[in-house]
Specification:
The complex is a heterodimer of chains A (311) and B (239).
Chain A lengths: L1 H17 L5 H26 L7 H19 L3 H23 L4 H20 L10 E2 L12 H25 L1 H11 L1 H5 L5 H20 L2 H5 L1 E2 L1 H4 L3 H13 L5 H20 L4 H16 L3 H14 L1
Antiparallel strand pairs in A: 1-2
Helix pairs in contact in A: 1-6, 2-6, 2-9, 2-12, 2-13, 3-4, 3-5, 3-9, 4-9, 6-7, 7-9, 12-13, 12-14, 12-15, 13-14
Chain B lengths: L5 E10 L2 E11 L4 E5 L6 H9 L6 E6 L2 E2 L5 H7 L1 E3 L12 H11 L5 H14 L15 H14 L4 E5 L7 H16 L3 E5 L3 H7 L2 E6 L2 E6 L1 H6 L1 H8 L2
Parallel strand pairs in B: 3-8, 3-9, 6-7, 7-8
Antiparallel strand pairs in B: 1-2, 1-4, 4-5, 9-10
Helix pairs in contact in B: 3-4, 3-5
The chains are: A mainly alpha (311), B alpha/beta (239).
Chain lengths: 311, 239
């Protein structure tokens, strides 16, 4: 119950903020941070719970973005339809990639998912209808009331999507599905011999994770009023998603949220005060620091602190 | 005469050019206590990996309760009643003892969260892990890990339990403790295959023993006949 009350509060606060005369930059930056929350949460369903490190985040994010663009250019589809179709395509890609790669383990799986990014980027680079290599300029439709600007509306939409993503991740974690995924992470052979249908469960995680990542990517062209393959399929999305999950803690649904808010906020501050290039360095330094000092992330640090203070 | 629980017929397994199993055949009666012995590399673990589904046999067939299971994935075989413990314990480290037991209870027994937790507590207590039920499995001692392996296999409600070196690295009294558990499980009607290097334990436990060497069965019989068998002595001592 607490979770649902908390979620409702978050959504009401986001809506209230969007309707007040707060500086526009807040929504511009807030949208990016909330996108990071969705991506990190989605990444954690397969990477954190099941232990399958997926480097293909940009492929899923990108298929969502390009599905949105395609539907907008072709049918002038509304944003909700773009997001739903993006999620569907992401789930479909997740199923396909999962069928091909989830029999691989460790580094082989990770490499296979990187390959998917390059394949997707090459396909979009050569597809003229969606802008090809040079990209496509998008004229945003009229903003829906009661929002004043499109960015404010997207901020609320992404807040809602974050809640959906976190709710799904939370359900998976506390249910028998999550227990099965954790069993796979610890020993796939022992899990299978305990009756866990490992391939089916991994496929499920891959589909849900892919659908959420793609849903997060679908509004991106509207946010930027532009799309092009190089930045859409940028591997920095992978680093950001897995970095957030590692820094926040991968064993709990709260971890990726903490990591994404922390990392996303620091990146925004660094981008504004220093440069956009330095923020990648910030992730790198933080990742090394956490892997060495706190491999279980901020949540792990907190648990350790709670254990020692209770003794 | 009742139907055999397990029938392994002419099973072979190759890894590249290496033959790990060569046309191995055996049959197990319901409720039998069966010992599988052989020197290191003789194919014992490969054979049980083929039976449990961790490996696919290249030739031959495996029939469980009258059903051909050679092509079934491991989880389907577990659901049909084949459970196993591992030579090197493989606990789900991120879970408590109870949660470890809840995995098969939920996936094989299809129990809901509350029911599964309750049953896991009973099972943990039956296996001598009652006091450790809430402990993380990563904090268990060696003998507790062995018990957890057996308990998790039991949580799958097996008809056939394969115990793969469940006593390796244990002291004399701990071996007795695990043996007592296996005897107790067998009394409930479960067929047990014991793979073990501790000969006294296999001899005490088994009604019938098969000795493997270089992927082939070299001898089959009662514990008394096996110890006297010249081929077995040769395989073990190289005499």
């Amino acid at each position: 119950m607490k979770f649902w009350i908390g979620s409702a509060v978050v959504l009401i606060v986001a809506l209230a903020l969007a309707l007040t005369p707060v500086n526009e930059y807040f929504f511009f930056a807030g949208y990016v941070v909330l996108t990071a929350v969705v991506l990190a949460t989605a990444w954690n369903i397969l990477g954190g719970y099941a232990g399958y490190v997926n480097f293909g985040t940009p492929a899923f994010f990108g298929i969502g973005a390009y599905t949105g663009v395609l539907l907008f250019k072709w049918l002038a589809a509304p944003l909700a339809l773009q997001i739903a179709a993006g999620a569907f395509m992401g789930g479909l890609l997740g199923f396909g990639v999962g069928m091909l790669t989830l029999r691989l383990r460790g580094i082989f799986f990770a490499i296979a998912t990187v390959a998917v990014v390059f394949i997707m980027e090459t396909l979009m680079t050569n597809w003229r209808y969606v802008g090809g290599a040079t990209g496509l300029q998008i004229l945003r439709p009229t903003v829906l009331p009661p929002f004043e600007t499109y960015t404010r509306m997207l901020f609320v939409v992404m807040a809602f999507m974050s809640i959906v993503a976190v709710s799904l991740a939370r359900y998976i974690q506390v249910s028998w599905v999550g227990r099965g995924l954790r069993a796979i992470r610890d020993s796939e052979e022992a899990a299978e011999c305990s009756g866990v249908p490992t391939l089916r469960l991994k496929l499920f995680a891959c589909v849900i994770s892919g659908a959420l990542m793609a849903a997060a990517g679908a509004p991106m062209p509207m946010y930027l009023s532009f799309i092009e393959p190089a930045s859409t399929f940028n591997l920095s999305y992978t680093i950001s998603a897995l970095g957030s999950a590692i820094i926040g803690g991968m064993s709990h649904w709260l971890g990726p949220i903490i990591g994404a808010i922390l990392l996303g906020s620091i990146q925004q501050i660094v981008t504004v005060t220093i440069s956009g290039e330095v923020n990648v360095l910030v992730i790198g330094v933080l990742l090394v620091l956490f892997v060495v000092v706190a491999p279980e992330g901020i949540l792990g640090l907190f648990k350790r602190w709670a254990r020692t203070s209770s003794k | 005469m009742g139907q055999n629980v397990l029938e392994v017929k002419g099973v072979s397994k190759h890894f590249g050019g290496f033959t790990a199993l060569s046309e191995v055949s055996l049959a197990l009666a319901p409720g039998e206590r069966f010992g599988l012995i052989g020197p290191n590399g003789s194919g014992k673990t490969t054979l049980i990996n083929c039976v449990s589904g961790s490996l696919r046999n290249d030739a031959g067939s495996i029939v469980f309760n009258g059903e051909e299971i050679s092509r079934l994935p491991a989880y389907q075989r577990t659901r049909r009643g084949i459970a196993r413990s591992f030579q090197i314990p493989r606990p789900f480290k991120d879970m408590s003892v109870l949660e470890n037991l809840m995995v098969p209870l939920q996936y094989v027994g299809k129990l809901k969260e509350g029911e599964a937790r309750e049953q896991a507590r009973v099972l943990a207590s039956d296996m001598g892990l009652g006091e450790k039920a809430e402990a993380m499995s990563s904090r268990l001692s060696q003998v507790e890990l062995r018990k957890l392996e057996l308990a998790r296999a039991m949580a799958a409600r097996p008809k056939l339990l394969i115990s793969d070196e469940a006593m390796a690295g244990l002291s004399g009294s701990e071996v007795d403790e695990v043996l007592a558990i296996l005897f107790k499980l067998n009394e409930t009607g479960i067929t047990i295959i014991m793979i073990e290097h501790i000969m006294q334990a296999v001899m005490r436990f088994s009604q019938r023993i098969i000795c493997l060497d270089a992927g082939k069965i070299i001898c089959e019989g009662t514990p008394t006949s096996i110890v006297k068998n010249v081929d077995v002595q040769k395989a073990y001592l190289g005499a």
